[in-house]
Amino acid sequence: MNPETPRSTRRLVIGASIAAIIGSAAALVLSQGTAQSVFSARFLPHAYCYLNDRKLIALHFGSDLVIWLSYVAIALTLAYLVRLTRREIPYSWMFLAFGTFIIACGFTHFMEIVVLWKPLYWLAGDVKLITALASVVTALALPSLVPQIRGMVRAAHISEKRRVQLELANEELHRLSAHALTAQDEERRRIARELHDGVGQYLAAMKMSFDVAIAESFGHDGGSDALQDCRDLVDRCTKEIRTISHLLHPPLLEEMGLASAIPWYVTGFRERSGIEVQLDMPTDFDRLPPSVEVVLFRVLQESLTNIHRHSGSERASIRLQVDAGNAILTVRDRGKGFDSQAAQFTAGVGIAGMRERVRELGGVFQIQSQSGGTVVAVTIPLQRRPVECLSES
C-alpha cells in the first residue's frame, strides 16, 4: 500500500479485508467446504443441462474463454503499470486492488468453462467468494478516495491553466524581445548617422579651423605647438568617432553586405585586440536578406568581443558557409572556456541576445565550451520557416 495513502483509508481497506476473509471462512464452514467437498463431482455438469447442444456449449465456452483471457491481460497490465510508475502514480495500491478484483472475476468465467464438463460447483463457488472479497475491498475503498481524486483533478486543471498562461507570457516575451532588438538596431543606426553626420562634421570643421590658425600663427613662439597639439587631438577624436560610428552600424553592411562588412570588421578587430583571426568565407556571394545579414554580423561581433574580453585566447577562427538553403557561421577560439551547462541559465545579455536574434529568424544557435576553447555555431534558413531555436552544449 502506498505510504502516502491516508491512514483512515488504509484502516478502512484493512478492516474490509479482514471482514471479507472472516465472511469467506464462515461461508466455507457453514457449507461444509472441506477439501473433499470442494472437489466433489457428484453433480451434473452444465453440458448435461445444455442437453449437450454443441452450438450452445460453444457459445458459452467461447464467451467465457475470451472474458477470462481479457480479464487476466487487464490485471497483468495494471500490475506492470504499478511496477513501472509506483512512485509517480498516487494510490498505486488501488490499482493492485482493482487488478485483483478483475482477475478474480476472470477466474469465475474460467470456472464456468470447467463446469461445462466437470461439475466442481463447490470450487466454482469458492472462486466466486474470493471475487466477492476483492469486490468488497475495492467497493469500500473507492468512495473515500473520491474527494482526494477530485482535489487532484482540480489541481491538475489549475496547473494546466498556469502552463497555458506561462506559454502565452513566454510568447509575449519573445515578441517584446524581438521588438527590443529591432529597436536597438534602429537606435544604433540613428546614433551612428548622428555621430558621422553631426559630431563628425563639427570635428572636421574644427580641424580645418586649426589648420588655418596654425598657418596664420606660424612663426610665433609657442602658439604653433599648442595649436598643433589641439589639431592632433581633434584628429584622434575624429578617428575614434568614425570607429564608434562604424561599429554601431557599419555602412558597408547596408551598402555592400556581409562580403565586405565581415573582412572590414575582422581587420579592425585584429588591429585593436592583437588577436590573430583566421577568416574562411566565400570570396564572392550574393546578398543575403537584410535581417539575416544583420543577425550574422551581430553574432560575429558579439562572439569576437567575448573572445577578446573573456577567453584569453590569442587566436580565433571564423567560417561562413552559404548555400541555397542556409547560412552557417562558426566562430571558434582556443581559450579557457566556461561551463556551458551553467551558462544556459546564467548567460549574460550578449549570449541571450544572440540566441534571441537567431530564434526570431527560425534558426539554430549552438554554443559548446570546454577547457580547450569555445565554439559558437549559428545556422539561419534563408527562407523563413517556423523552427525553434536550439541551444546545445
Fold and architecture overview:
By secondary structure, this protein is an alpha+beta fold. The protein folds into two domains: 7-163, no CATH class; 252-393, Histidine kinase-like ATPase, C-terminal domain (Heat Shock Protein 90). Helices cover 69% and strands 9% of the residues. It is built from twelve helices and five strands. The chain has helices spanning 7-30, 35-38, 46-49, 54-84, 92-114, 121-216, 223-248, 251-255, 258-273, 290-311, 340-346, 349-360; strands spanning 276-280, 315-322, 326-333, 364-370, 373-381. A five-stranded mixed sheet has the order 1-2-3-5-4, with helices on one face. Helix 1 runs antiparallel to helix 6 and helix 6 (121-216) runs antiparallel to helix 7. The longest helix is centred in the middle third of the chain and has 96 residues, at 121-216. The model is unreliable at 1-5, 344-348 and 386-393 (pLDDT under 50).
Topology (SSEs and partners):
Elements: H1 7-30, H2 35-38, H3 46-49, H4 54-84, H5 92-114, H6 121-216, H7 223-248, H8 251-255, H9 258-273, E1 276-280, H10 290-311, E2 315-322, E3 326-333, H11 340-346, H12 349-360, E4 364-370, E5 373-381
Parallel strand pairs: 1-2
Antiparallel strand pairs: 2-3, 3-5, 4-5
Helix pairs in contact: 1-6, 4-5, 5-6, 6-7, 6-12, 9-10, 10-12
